[in-house]
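ugh ok so i messed up the first submission bc i forgot one of the chains. this is the corrected input, ALL of the components this time, i swear. 349 residues overall. if the numbers dont match what u have on ur side tell me asap before i send this to the collaborators (the ones from the other lab, u know who)
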Amino acid sequence: MTEQINALIGKLLDEHRLSAKEYEALIAGRDAEAAEILAGAASEVSRRIYGNAIYFRGLIEISNICKNNCLYCGIRRGNTDCVRYRLTPEEILECADEGYSLGFRTIVMQGGEDPYYTDEMVCSLIREIKRRHPDCAVTLSLGERSRESYAALREAGADRYLLRHETANKAHYARLHPAEMSFDNRMRCLRDLRELGYQVGCGFMVGSPFQTNAHIAEDLKFIEEFQPEMCGIGPFIPHEKTPFRDHPAGTLELTCFLLSVIRLICPTTLLPATTALGTIDPLGREKGILAGANVVMPNLSPTSVRKKYELYDGKICTGDESAQCVRCMAARMESIGYRMVVDRGDVKK
Ligand code: SAH
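and heres the new structure output, hopefully the right one now
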């Protein structure tokens, strides 16, 4: 490790921020030793704030029907080979009930941008989950909606919203999305969510096509400024039925490095070790935790639809029952000295 990298790590630890150029230099100049030092510092910060707790969130993939055509995503509308499904409100409530009985006190509803789920329908779902399980936090990840829609969902009781910014560079955004989608609208959504009082999650894919270190530096500057309560990062993984089928996947190494950097930028942020990370390496999620992540999101979707919510090739855990997923994940966390915590796990301020 060079003296320069050592100094940058020290500065990041002390000040929780670097200039864009410094982030870029840190990424470009990293080596195994730098990664180890950063991971040690990041997991120590996480332990100081959250102890050895890993927050478990129950994820329900409510629909793979999507009106968007993001170039990287396996459920883009242009993928005519994708077998589509949507869960009925009754099915979603059953998944939530099962999650509750497995102990989860955060239920996440994620899906493609499926117009079937009107505000009215999502609001009544949120209200019903909250009526049955008042001690649960409800997290939504349903893409871009109007401010009025976000306001209605919040009013109905939604606590948190996950909407990755995908990239903080406008030109890069335009290379990952069709012309009909806009960077400005994505950012508008994040601002609206914040103003409406949600706990907000942003994030990006590591190694997305055309991504440069300078782009990642911009993502880190954005995270520094936005101070998200949650931050989802995972490796890009190509899907064979998308225009990016021939692009290489992001790496475990860079993803873990960036998890550590983000932990140091936002010490209290809730940082998942994602399914994508577990897909590119059999111990990816464990390695993510050891690099500073503190959240995992086991799947609660009915096994009948698991395989169909395929954002990228080779997605893991598509055959397991929810209870199996939870047990497997709890054992994985214990194997590295952490423990499953199922309570709401709000961000510590
Ligand atoms: N429609 C919702 C949920 C999207 S799926 C929304 O727009 O927020 C959740 C995340 O999966 C996306 O934000 C994206 O960053 C990630 N994702 C999509 N395709 C991927 C791929 N090929 N590899 C890795 N991650 C992917």
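quick check: Residues 186 and 234 are 19 Å apart (CA to CA). that seems consistent at least. The chain has a mean pLDDT of 98.
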